[in-house]
Amino acid sequence: MSQKALTAIHASPPAHWVGDGFLVQPLFASLAFGQEVSPFLMLDYAAPHQFKPSAKPPGVGAHPHRGFETVTIVYEGEVEHRDSAGNAGKIGPGDVQWMTAGSGVLHEEFHSRDHAARGGSVSMAQLWVNLPASDKKVAPRYQTVLAGTIPTLEIADGKGALRVVAGTYGEAKGPAKTFTSLNVWDVTLQAGAALDLAITPGDNVLVALLSGKVAVGADKASGTGLLTFSTAGDSIALRAEADTKLLVLSGRPLAEPIAHYGPFVMNSEAEIREAIDDFRRGKMGRLEEFA
């Protein structure tokens, strides 16, 4: 195996609020929506944050998306989702929501009513995954991926665990259905764990450090940030220098133009203008106020 070279360690930008329910760090920073992270677009991480009990669930009200997928991984707390395609669901710790916006959908995300009433810690990550041009207008789809359906493998000589949310790891296959070849691995490592991961040559690979400290050769990163690697080579080698939590993302770059504006990601500015017009005309559906 030939190792992919570490190209950069990107420090996380300051956190900002999304709605009133999610205090997030945009880990892709200036790389977001670029070819270096394709087929992924952006990644927000909400570190554990304590919320007081509230009769009104914090979160983000109805907003549109077109041309990509949102992947929400809950670490602490509970998140409720509704969309204009008629989908609804609640996910808790370890669960994943994989929503394909496709041709266009309105959705909302709030802390669950039960969790909001109790108060407590909320932590989650939301990844945006691009769709190829041929699938940007597929019908919206919603996948609830419960923790119990996600293969969890012992790694690093018993000093770590890897959950296969999407793609494959060895013989294990993740339950999430995807449009392109990609992997989403949710990884925890104990201090001192060493891990070698096989990566398909030519694929982009991104290691999102959510907490802890990790080393790649002589280079070290701690806290929260993003590690990027060269496309050449077929593996990466990581060593945890503290108890560490990671998201490892790899996939075949789409090699297509990317045009984005707010909640829309298409291949041209003309398609962005069409998306805005379709949203204003109500072609992405309606979402009545939650009762």
List the helices and strands and how they pair.
Layout: E1 6-11, E2 16-18, E3 22-26, E4 40-51, E5 59-65, E6 68-76, E7 79-83, E8 88-91, E9 96-100, E10 105-111, H1 113-118, E11 120-130, E12 141-145, E13 152-155, E14 160-166, E15 168-169, E16 172-173, E17 182-189, E18 194-198, E19 204-211, E20 213-216, E21 219-222, E22 225-229, E23 235-240, E24 244-251, E25 259-261, E26 264-266, H2 269-280
Antiparallel strand pairs: 1-22, 2-3, 3-4, 4-11, 5-10, 6-9, 6-11, 7-8, 7-10, 9-12, 13-14, 14-17, 15-16, 17-24, 18-23, 19-22, 19-24, 20-21, 20-23, 25-26
Please outline what is shown here:
The chain is mainly β. The protein is 6% helix and 51% strand.
What share of residues are in beta strands?
Answer: over 45%
Helix-residue proportion:
under 10%
Structural class: mainly beta
User: Strands across the major sheet, in which order?
Assistant: 1-22-19-24-17-14-13
Rg over CA atoms, rounded to whole Å, is 19 Å
Oligomer kind: single chain
Assign an overall shape.
Answer: globular
Total DSSP helices: 2
**Distance linking N and C termini:** 56 Å
What's the helix-strand series? EEEEEEEEEEHEEEEEEEEEEEEEEEEH
Number of strands: 26
Provide a descriptive summary of the structure in words.
The protein is mainly β. Helices cover 6% and strands 51% of the residues. It has two helices and 26 strands. The chain has a seven-stranded antiparallel sheet, with no helix packed on it. Strands 2-3-4-11-6-9-12 form a seven-stranded antiparallel sheet. A hairpin with a 2-residue loop joins β20 (213-216) and β21 (219-222). It is globular.
